[in-house]
Amino acid sequence: MTHTSPSPELLARLVCPVTKGPVHYDPASNSIISPRAGLAFPVRDGIPVMLPEQATKLED
After folding, report:
1. Residue 49, in any domain of the structure
2. How far apart are CA 42 and CA 53, in angstroms?
3. 20, 53, 55, 59: most buried by Cβ count inside 10 Å?
């Protein structure tokens, strides 16, 4: 399965909707990671879904 990653321009503008802190893209899980919130936001068709109710908790 091929994932379409978000554009670098979009990634530069994203912040976590919960903490307002920095996020980064993880190609292995095809998600936007918020380390401070401990959440992974899914990316669907290259579009980050930055809704807290759609995020999954990161494992410790």
Report:
1. yes
2. 11
3. 55
